[in-house]
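Continuing the series of single-chain predictions for the mutant panel. This is the parent chain; the variants come on the following pages.
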Amino acid sequence: MQTFPPVDSLLPHRPPMLWVDRILDVQGAAGSARALVKADHLFLRQDGTLAPEAYCELIAQGFGACEAYRRIKQGLSINGGGYLVSVRDMQCLALARAGDELTVRTEKTDECFDTYIVQGQVFRQEEKLAQAVVYIYMWQGKEPPKL
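Parent structure:
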């Protein structure tokens, strides 16, 4: 069984924006991470459901944590950062609720000019809640390059 570093050592996010709390698996370009929908989640609506737009950020954070782990395993630096820059083909199939444990599955499908194209899915147990293709711009160093 693989042992993974704490997610807060891999991502620059901090509460209340750190939503992914554990890497579950990393295999090649694919990975999965866990997220708990807490009662104080920033995107939790008054009816107790998670706003659908939160799924895109969950996918981005799940990918970011797994990608940082891949880089460590390759002996590369994880100094740098990334931005979620675009979302395509987002489908919200069901809403998560406070207290749900979610699994975020991601796979990098392509890369172009430091932008990673990632297919992501969010599950509650075996029920698929959402899927999307996200574009994540990533850089090395303390801040993004000036354009």
